[in-house]
Every structure is written in structure tokens, then in C-alpha cells.
Amino acid sequence: xxxxxxxxxxxxxxxxxxxxxxxxxxxxxxxxxxxxxxxxxxxxxxxxxxxxxxxxxxxxxxxxxxxxxxxxxxxxxxxxxxxxxxxxxxxxxxxxxxxxxxxxxxxxxxxxxxxxxxxxxxxxxxxxxxxxxxxxxxxxxxxxxxxxxxxxxxxxxxxxxxxxxxxxxxxxxxxxxxxxxxxxxx
Length: 186
Hints:
It is built from six helices and six strands, in the order βααβαβααβαββ.
């Protein structure tokens, strides 16, 4: 399937990111570094041609805060869509990653999301992201989360989207997806 042109932002660093806590559907505010991450993303976007783009954001406080900083000078409105929220981590929300069982396999980091008791799981997140992408009617700037961004990028671009060494990151940068190709803008 062909998808519209996308710019994808991950929210800036939060206090829980800095503490290495699982956030999921819970929220923590941006740190000063996180505010700088969002400002850097705004500078990247201001250098792009975004006429006709929709601006869509997860309803989580950290993404709304990021959108307010990154898109303030360029977006007339930013609309929220719950399908852009982060993967649910169930009973592990708010817990320090180091206190949790470690995942195994090729990607132990992602394996933790499958292990989370009462968590959403990657398959459910993927279905949610696919439904969101199917409903897009034109180009968009998306302000979302690390794992949600990863899943959206893999759906649109394929496994090559995850070959970048910072697949779990994205704070302070912007992913540009067009014609099945991903570019990391820094």
C-alpha cells in the first residue's frame, strides 16, 4: 500500500525517560533537554515545505507539550488522535526498566514490551497504527512516541526503517517518509 508523505517526531526527553522508566500511557513532563529537543524539531520542520500538511498528535501530555514547542510557528492547529499514543505497558507503567525482567532474542528492548503483564503488545499496536495510516487522507506531521514511531515507520517503509542505529530514539530529530523511503533529519 502507498501512504502519504509523513514527518514523524518523537516527543522530547521526559523526566521518566531520563530515569529509564516505562511510561506507556502514563505521562511525565519534558525535561529542559526535552524542550530543546522539541525546539530542534521545530527548526527542522521550518526548513521544509509543509503546505497542505495535517498536524496530528498523540493525546499524551508529553507529545502535546512537544507539539506546542515544535509546531507553534508553523501549524494553524494540531489535532490529537488516540491511535498515536504509545504502546500500553500495563502493570509495568511507571516502573524502572532495570527492575523489570530483561527481554531476550534479537531485540531484548522490544521483547520487554511483549512481556509486560496486561500490556498492549506489538501486534495490537501494529493494528492500531495500520488503522491510523489507512485513514490518512493526505500528507501529515505526526507527533508521537518511540515505539509507535518505530511501528509506523516499519509499516510504511518496511524493515529497512529500523536499520538506523537510533531506532529506539528519535528525540530531537525528525523522520521523513516519502515514496517508501525514510530519511532521518537532524
